[in-house]
Amino acid sequence: MPHAPSRRPTILDVARAAGVSKSLVSLALRGDAGVSESTRARITAAADQLGYRSNALARGLVQGRTMLLGVLLTDLANPYHTDVVAGIEESAGEAGFGVLLAHGRRDAKRLASQLDTLVQLNVDGVIAVSSWVDPADLQAAARRTPVVVVGRPEHPPAGIDTVANDDAAGAALAMTHLVGLGHREIAFVTTSRRPAAEGRRCGYETASHRAGLSPHTVAAESVEELPLRVAPLLRSGVSALIANNDLTAVALLDIAHDLGLPVPERLSVVGYDNSTLAALVRPRLTSIDQPRPELGRTAVRLLLQRSGGRTTDRHEVLNPRLVARGSTGPYGR
User: Fold this and answer.
1) In terms of DSSP bridges, do strands 240-243 and 216-219 run parallel, antiparallel, or are they unpaired?
2) In what order do the strands lie in the sheet with 147-150?
3) Tell me: the pLDDT tens digits for 93-129?
């Protein structure tokens, strides 16, 4: 018959085993001064023998800090989000913080619930890698802990910092690249109406007019709807497509394959994000590089500044760059 698991050892168990007070155990395990090396060694040995691990959340309630940052994501399936998290974890670790992840699963109600859970866990700040969270929910969270949004919320509420890339400038870089390759019929394809995608669309349209070209924008509600929307455009003679993100661009590569349009000989495709996905597909995807890890690192910096007493809002915008790969080539080659 299986034995029931023994209870988790407490700080009182360590104190009894080491023959010292509970407060001295706490001082020793925190590394504070005032504990002799021999006593600290005895306490550490007792803790190791018992398998004692300190309760970070309980300690945080007492000290007012948990040394944990909460990170709220819209979609774990999007490599852009995971790349941003890599930058967050790196900077948080350097500052001595751990990271708790919460996944919204592309659902606004779940995002709100997950945000509330992170705040209830007494994290020392929340980074929302999402523009989907309701501004009122963000503002409510910010009254209890610093909040930074990575992305472009439609209406950033007061008391919230943001960090994003220059979406319009990125789309203009894609246009400059394609026009330089001789393309004149260039379309923008989007599967989103969020502020970032709209910024990219506006940048594309402005750059089109600047180059003396007529813009063609195709909007689909989902990736699954793209074939119906894009196929007529490709048959009309469009020779290059700019996608609102890499996931959409990869779907466009698939559509081109199904239609028998070689890339880049007949069709050039540019993505946006330069996520890890861009280097995995064939042909490798030309994409606008958002500095994803730097977005994450900047978010941590803004969060720590808030914790340090800054009260003015900051909205930082980072510059993108184009990374040319095999999905784009000269027109008519």
Assistant:
1) unpaired
2) 98-103, 68-73, 126-129, 147-150, 161-165, 315-318
3) 999 999 999 999 889 899 999 999 999 988 999 999 9
Report CA torsion sign: 15, 18, 21, 24.
Answer: negative
* Residue 47 confidence (pLDDT): 86
- Residue 38 CB contacts under 8 Å (≥ 6 apart), including other chains: none
Give the domains, in start order, of the chain with CATH numbers.
Answer: 11-54 (1.10.260.40), 66-165+292-318 (3.40.50.2300), 167-290 (3.40.50.2300)
Calculate the alpha carbon distances from 199 to 95, 104, 316 in Å.
Answer: 33, 23, 16
Reference 277, options 300, 319, 248, 237; nearest CA is 248
State the DSSP H helix or E strand holding residue 286, giving kind and residue range, or none if neither.
strand 286-289
Q: Which residues contact 137 (CB under 8 A, 6 or more apart)?
A: 111, 112, 115, 116
Which of 160, 252, 157, 248 has its CA nearest to residue 200? 248
Cα 10 from Cα 16, distance rounded (Å): 10
Distance CA 47, CA 54 (A): 10
Confidence grade of residue 62 (pLDDT, cut at 50, 70, 90): low
Whole-model pTM above 0.85? no
Quickly count: other Cβ atoms within 10 Å of residue 107's Cβ.
14
Residue position matching structure tokens 């540019």: 270
